[in-house]
Amino acid sequence: MTTYVTFAEFCTRHPGGLGDADRERAEAVLSDASGLVADNYPAEIDPADIPGVVKRLTLRVAMRVFTNPLAMTGETIGDYQWQRSPADGLGLRLSAMERRELRRAAQGGSGTRVVFVTPG
């Protein structure tokens, strides 16, 4: 399995960077994220020419899983506490919007939409 994002690219985008101690875990997450994106990209991906949307979504998923591996969400303020179950978080899944981005890109679309608005 080809990973679409290198450890160096991931480190550059991670707040504060990453050290060698995090390398094994980061590379595992990058491999998992690349596999997920490949499974949802409806076209063959040439490792020598990885589409930008594939790189961006792989980074987004990898960052999401690396920084919050249990997909926990919650908030505590004084006596107030709210928490959502890990099953509710995205984790190592793509949202409907992310899947649409991949489909549009595979069909030759940029994923960008233009809306013309006339004043008045």
Describe the secondary-structure layout.
Elements: H1 7-13, H2 23-40, H3 52-67, E1 73-77, E2 80-84, H4 96-106
Antiparallel strand pairs: 1-2
Helix pairs in contact: 2-3
Binned strand content: 5-15%
Structural class: mainly alpha
N-to-C order of helices and strands: HHHEEH
Q: How many DSSP H or I helices?
A: 4
Q: Rg from C-alpha positions?
A: 17 Å
Give the mean pLDDT: 84
> Strand order within the widest sheet?
1-2
Number of domains: 1
> Roughly how many Å apart are the termini?
54 Å
Coarse morphology:
globular
Low-pLDDT parts are: none
What characterizes the major β-sheet? Answer: 2 strands, antiparallel
| Helix content, binned percent | 40-55%
According to DSSP, the number of beta strands is 2
Keywords for this structure?
single chain, 120 residues, mainly alpha, 4 helices, globular
Description:
By secondary structure, the chain is mainly α. β1 (73-77) and β2 form a beta hairpin. The radius of gyration is 17 Å and the shape is globular. The chain has one domain. Helix content is 43%, strand content 8%. It has a two-stranded antiparallel sheet. The chain contains 4 helices and 2 strands, in the order αααββα. The model has no long low-confidence stretch (mean pLDDT 84). α2 (23-40) packs across α3.
Structure summarized in a few sentences:
With 120 residues, this protein is mainly α.
